[in-house]
Amino acid sequence: MSDVAALAGVSHQTVSRVLNEHPSVREDTRRRVLDAIATLGYRRNVAARALATARSATIGVVTTGSGLFGPASTLIAVEEAAREQGWYVSVATIRQYDGVTMHRVLDHFMDQAVEGIVVIAPQADVAEAVHEFRAPVPVVLIAAGETEAATIPLAVDQRLGARLATEYLLDLGHESVLHVSGPGDWLDAVEREAGWRSVHEERGITPPDPVGADWTADRGYQVGLGLADQIRTGEGPTAVFAANDHLALGMLRAFWERGVSVPRDVSVVGFDDVAGSGHFVPPLTTVRQPFDELGRRSVALLLEAVAGAQVGAELIAPMLVERASAGPPP
Amino acid sequence: MSDVAALAGVSHQTVSRVLNEHPSVREDTRRRVLDAIATLGYRRNVAARALATARSATIGVVTTGSGLFGPASTLIAVEEAAREQGWYVSVATIRQYDGVTMHRVLDHFMDQAVEGIVVIAPQADVAEAVHEFRAPVPVVLIAAGETEAATIPLAVDQRLGARLATEYLLDLGHESVLHVSGPGDWLDAVEREAGWRSVHEERGITPPDPVGADWTADRGYQVGLGLADQIRTGEGPTAVFAANDHLALGMLRAFWERGVSVPRDVSVVGFDDVAGSGHFVPPLTTVRQPFDELGRRSVALLLEAVAGAQVGAELIAPMLVERASAGPPP
DNA sequence: TGAGATGATGTGAGCGCACACATTCGACCA
DNA sequence: TGGTCGAATGTGTGCGCTCACATCATCTCA
């Protein structure tokens, strides 16, 4: 920096002013400094800047270690939004969501002196672990479910998404909808089930017991094989709401293998709108989550909080994507 | 740090020694310092450390901004491997792969003083842009295709993967294999086509002209519709090697809609083994890329290079995953 | 015409750490 | 018992920047 100052014939402080866009610098000296910077190929040292200002201009993002579409898309949106505002983004991934690992990852971020954290945290214990950690910086917790202090909750409205799917099926004329639910320790799964249930209750319908599952196409296939037999004997459901698209995919395959026609014999609706779901056999009606917006909003909220503002919980609305896998009952 | 030193009754330098695991510190003073650190909740300031050592302990990863399975999985593996070794990982994503954007992103990393960069760069111009940038730190370029100096190339052997798929189909008895290729500016696509072509040439077969496509299921569907008509009139291919699983998915749907049976009327092989491809209709035979290993190797190579070692190009072998979508010709 | 206000610039200090060097301590052997 | 050597510890300095403050030039209006 002093080299630049020397070349431009000013003091180091004036260089600093130019760099920080301080208003009171005359246009021609500004130009001179900028030229000197260019000819010297000078680049401000972040470490020194961070040391002097006690600010790192970095946010941390913890995300799932599974390459899933949703978390990955959210991460990308977060990064873009952050970089646009001049922030650096550090990531940490978690394969196994337990309190210890979560703690370690948050520690990793605190070591790095991040100024805020976004946690893409789909499981209940993760949310808890985050709360327990009591981070000294703002934390945006992307997680469905009930709010807690100490973090800023933000989520796609899973319950609404499930309601959209369920209402759509009931409005098509189905008497009730079977739910193939996600794992019970995932907040999204719990919320989706709650949304599905609430629609039935509002309409005075007793829904069939949900079938418990994980998030995999394998499990969907298994469940689908079982249902196919019931459907062929006429005692199965006429409409199924799967907790995610992968489950739905496995079920579609099972139905296809067993000669159960979708949507003629049974309607299927998924959740997520994963890449390619528009070309499943048949194309899958599903609920699309606006991950981009989720990422952008999380950065906006976080940066507001970092700047000292009080920010509250937010919910983002998903939307139903109508395709061919759902129709009126047989 | 001086607080810790005072509490432990030692000098700040001794604290520094404990932190850096210097050997000549007596066990009991080490203990005392550690206790003091714990009671004070002291955390070393990375900025000051970076300033003093001129090292940031950070690597940058630039990846695609599309939430695709491959890049996302690679990123995760990179991050895990790096964190394990005590490195921080900063990310930057690119939606649009042009030279300018690439330049901007690499600048972003240089501003941040990263010590090494991993570029997950599937397109030819990206690789070029990276070379042109002439980064002052080691760069691992995850990209198929020819090697260049200035970066450390690393890739999954796309050509081998394509050969695996093509040989598998020819060995099943097909006279030739039609290739539905990816976009020509993607290195992976070029390599896959080259692998497919080389097998035909070795066996003295003239392959049919490849059908150009992008990476999407939509395009696969279009292509599939066209092929279905040919196949039903007996003049279509008996085996198709799609450049990726999404293309294959779209084709499978088109075949299904047009009553073309897979694999009875036509065999289909994909590339990637995306989540759920085992439950496509029918389950898709495809080529699996070891993204985890790719990520781990890239970090290993990068850290070696950062440490000053000379490291060379590497190729990682993919594997064929046999499922139901390919069989003998009709 | 001069005092005050404002804008443009310079000066010095300190952020918290690691490095090079100086010093102290203790053990061991002649 | 003194000398030597190495282990253990302390002292001072500088990394490159921003901040608070001081200074100087310029303009405005009474």
Structure description:
2 copies of one chain form a homodimer. The first copy, chain A, is α/β, with parallel strands linked by helices and 330 residues long. Chain A folds into 3 domains: 2-44, 434 Repressor (Amino-terminal Domain), CATH 1.10.260.40; 55-157 and 290-317, Rossmann fold, CATH 3.40.50; 158-289, Rossmann fold (3-Layer(aba) Sandwich). Chain A has 12 helices and 12 strands. Chain A has helices at residues 2-8, 12-19, 27-40, 46-53, 69-84, 99-111, 124-133, 158-171, 187-202, 217-232, 245-257, 291-306, and strands at residues 58-64, 88-94, 116-120, 139-142, 152-156, 178-181, 211-212, 239-242, 267-269, 286-288, 314-316, 319-321. A 6-stranded parallel β-sheet of chain A has the order 2-1-3-4-5-11, with helices on both faces. The interface between A and B is large, with 55 and 55 residues.
Please tell me the CATH architecture of the largest domain in chain A by its name: 3-Layer(aba) Sandwich
For the sheet with most strands of chain A, the description reads: 6 strands, parallel
Spans of chain A with pLDDT under 50 lasting ≥5 residues? none
Most extensive chain-chain interface: A-B, 55 and 55 residues
Query: What is the CATH C level class of the largest domain in chain A, in words?
Result: Alpha Beta
- The CATH topology of the largest domain in chain A corresponds to Rossmann fold
Number of domains of chain A: 3
- How many individual helices of chain A? 12
Radius of gyration of chain A: 26 Å
Through-space gap between termini of chain A:
76 Å
Element string of chain A (H = helix, E = strand): HHHHEHEHEHEEHEHEHEHEEHEE
Oligomeric composition of the shown chains: homodimer
Integer average pLDDT of chain A: 92
Shape of chain A: elongated
